[in-house]
Design a protein that fits this description.
binds 2-phosphoglycolic acid, TIM Barrel, 2 domains, 16 strands, binds zinc ion, 432 residues
């Protein structure tokens, strides 16, 4: 089915900042759209998000230039093409842009068209997006990684660590993983309320409490797991996103905790991370070192990689070249996957495939600035990724994704699978 018309408008993300929604209309009248999210603790190697940069309009954040590219050059290129040819459409847009990081047309412009094309192709066939994206092979429901406390750049540095999350390790179904998370999330809220320290929600919906140290956040999560009637490390484990590039000073190769006013050499910092993973029931850790500090990554992987999932986010930025380098260096064992870090659906699928072929785990992820678009819920199931990170268990831009997986679970019926924490056997094979 051929693409007839492409149009875009400026709408707003969960932080109230402008973003693009693109709608594709096919010759048979079918319409579908794609909305692009936006990060705050962005990696330096990400594809470029094009904003107008005019300080007197929309605080420089408007996206009218990118919309102009969608409705101008991109529309001219893509209209008349077969919507099923996702790769052809994506490659043509990459060639039209002509830069390494999609800086000319904007990754937000290109991705909005790429996502809309994928959704329109599914709709034209009368199929769910996860079915067409995964060529009918997507059946695995993801294990959720859900934020309890938000910090770092997402909560005005109340804690230095960006995400304190939990993973419902004992869950036997996707629904049960949500139930365990529900109980722990609300238990954490009760504890903070009783202590008079519950002050609001961070960007991804996690609590933004008053804490005096990062260690206090660990203690709070452990208490919440216990209060909810579970055993830490057995029923639910801790997952962290350190977002260490935000804590790193390139000029003197050091790390700093702004809230605790402490600084560390790279070796001291990685020792602290390793110590946390040994002292607390940590099952997964993301960006434990800065995106240029390969030596620290390798040290952490060598030391705790046999029992902890070690995810590169800013390190890899969903970029094939960077993921390949990480695999060669054996610097991690998992890759965070964000569509707008790379800018097309096809390249995102390639990044997931590369990760899986290496025996590593992909974790499909939202951004801190999200929207009502549920594309990533479908992407997680389509690729049998096994894990999904969307932020917390509050606010509709987050719940939209968790809820969409529930709908996919119903839709798949008996065909659905859930490996839960067994997925980690891929990276931590049991000794025989
Ligand atoms: P971001 O945060 O979307 O602000 O980059 C999410 C993350 O770091 O995983
Ligand atoms: Zn991250």
């Amino acid at each position: 089915m051929k693409i007839k018309k492409i149009s875009a408008i400026q709408i707003f993300d969960s932080r109230g900042y402008p973003t693009i929604e693109t709608e594709i209309e096919l010759e048979n009248g079918v319409r579908a759209s794609g909305i692009v999210p936006s990060g705050a603790s962005t990696g330096q190697y990400e594809a470029l998000e094009l904003r107008d940069g005019d300080p007197v309009q929309w605080r420089g954040k408007s996206v009218f230039k990118a919309i102009g590219h969608v409705e101008g050059e991109i529309s001219e290129l893509v209209c008349g093409r077969d919507v099923d040819d996702q790769r052809g459409i994506d490659e043509a847009m990459i060639a039209l842009d002509g830069t390494e990081n999609k800086a000319r047309l904007g990754a937000n412009a290109i991705l909005s068209v790429s996502m809309a094309a994928a959704s329109a192709a599914a709709k034209a066939k009368g199929e769910a997006l996860y079915t067409t994206l995964g060529l009918g092979k997507g059946i695995l429901l993801p294990l959720p990684e859900i934020q309890i406390i938000g910090g770092g750049a997402h909560a005005n540095w109340r804690t230095d660590i960006q995400d304190f999350m939990i993973i419902a390790k004992a869950a036997k179904t996707y629904r049960e993983a949500l139930e365990i998370t529900f109980n722990i999330y609300h238990a954490a809220g009760d504890i903070l309320h009783e202590q008079g320290r519950r002050f609001g929600l961070a960007d991804e919906g996690g609590y933004w409490p008053e804490l005096t140290s990062n260690e206090e956040a660990f203690e709070l999560i452990i208490s919440a797991i216990e209060r909810a009637g579970y055993t830490p490390g057995v029923d639910a484990s801790i997952s962290l996103d350190i977002a260490a590039s935000d804590l790193y000073d390139h000029s003197n190769h050091s790390y700093c905790f702004p809230s605790e006013n402490r600084s560390f050499t790279s070796a001291e910092f990685s020792d602290l991370i390793i110590d946390w993973c040994q002292r607390y029931p940590v099952i997964s850790i993301e960006d434990p070192a800065a995106d240029t500090d390969w030596e620290a990554w390798i040290k952490i992987k060598t030391s705790i990689g046999r029992k902890v999932q070690i995810i590169g986010d800013d390190l890899f930025t969903t970029n094939l070249g960077r993921i390949r380098k990480g695999i060669e260096k054996n610097a991690a064992n998992a890759v965070l996957i964000k569509l707008n870090q790379i800018g097309t659906v096809s390249e995102t699928l390639d990044a997931i495939r590369l990760t899986q072929d290496a025996g590593w785990l992909p974790v499909i992820s939202a951004r801190s600035g999200e929207t009502e678009d549920t594309f990533i819920a479908h992407l997680a199931v389509a690729t049998n990724a096994g894990q999904l990170k969307v932020g917390s268990f509050a606010r509709s831009e987050r719940m939209a994704k968790w809820n969409e997986v529930l709908r996919i679970e119903r839709h798949l019926g008996e065909r659905s699978q859930f490996k839960g924490a067994e997925i980690y056997q891929t990276i931590h094979p049991k000794k025989t």
